[in-house]
Automatic annotation (TrEMBL):
<keyword id="KW-0732">Signal</keyword>
<dbReference type="Pfam" id="PF17680">
    <property type="entry name" value="FlgO"/>
</dbReference>
<feature type="signal peptide">
    <location>
        <begin position="1"/>
        <end position="22"/>
    </location>
</feature>
<feature type="domain" description="FlgO">
    <location>
        <begin position="74"/>
        <end position="201"/>
    </location>
</feature>
<dbReference type="InterPro" id="IPR041215">
    <property type="entry name" value="FlgO_dom"/>
</dbReference>
<protein>
    <submittedName>
        <fullName>FlgO family outer membrane protein</fullName>
    </submittedName>
</protein>
Length: 208
């Protein structure tokens, strides 16, 4: 008898699922609907003029990836900057690259990542780089050990440097133009400069 009841249970459940008035729990949807997450808002968007310049039938595939990374273009800048004899033997600080506008104070993920990459790449080309975000002590905490900060009150009091590397970003129809220069603090003269260009395909892969 028990065996017969067990065999009938699947049939009862199947029939119940077809009834519009069935409110039993086993008649509800067991698998939840897939959650659709919103697409992340990119920090960089292709200018409208660039979009219009492409043929109407052209659509860049979502999976399109550049074979070159941002480091490749940063290394080209580092190589150009290191060629000047004036920067050899000097202590160089590096600022974030900013958009070329009336304020010259708006940076982007590209501007910040370029400066971070140049801090690593320029010493490989023989340029001495000083870390201006270094604090005067090592902060040990439960989430890690930290030596860098953006809080001016925690930074080292004395920072000896001879020049500052700065740069600007200009958006064009094909990508981003980079203008970098090393400025001497004592004379405010430019001792080294470099230019670069990063296409849209690379810029679209940069995340904040």
């Amino acid at each position: 008898m028990m065996r017969g009841l067990i065999c009938l249970v699947p049939l009862i459940l199947a029939a119940c699922s077809n009834l519009s008035f069935c409110g039993a729990s086993h008649c509800q949807t067991i698998d939840p609907e897939p959650v659709t997450l919103p697409e992340p808002t990119p920090w960089y968007r292709v200018p409208a003029t660039a979009e219009q310049s492409e043929p109407a039938s052209y659509q860049m595939p979502y999976w399109a990836q550049s074979q070159k990374r941002l480091q490749h273009y940063a290394d080209q800048l580092a190589y150009q900057l290191a060629q000047a004899d004036a920067v050899k033997g000097q202590r160089l600080a590096i600022s974030s690259f900013v958009e070329l506008d009336e304020t010259l104070s708006q940076s982007t993920p590209l501007g910040n990542q370029l400066s971070e990459l140049l801090r690593t790449l320029l010493p490989q080309h023989g340029v001495t780089v000083v870390e201006h975000k270094l604090t005067s002590r090592l902060w040990v905490g439960p989430h890690g050990d930290f030596a860098l900060s953006r809080d001016a009150r925690l930074l080292a009091k004395q920072l000896e440097m001879d020049a500052i590397l700065t740069g600007t970003l200009v958006t064009t129809e094909r990508g981003m133009e980079i203008q970098a220069r090393v400025v001497q603090l004592d004379t405010q003269s430019i001792s080294s400069s470099a230019t670069g260009f990063i296409p849209h395909l690379v810029l679209n892969q940069i995340r904040p």
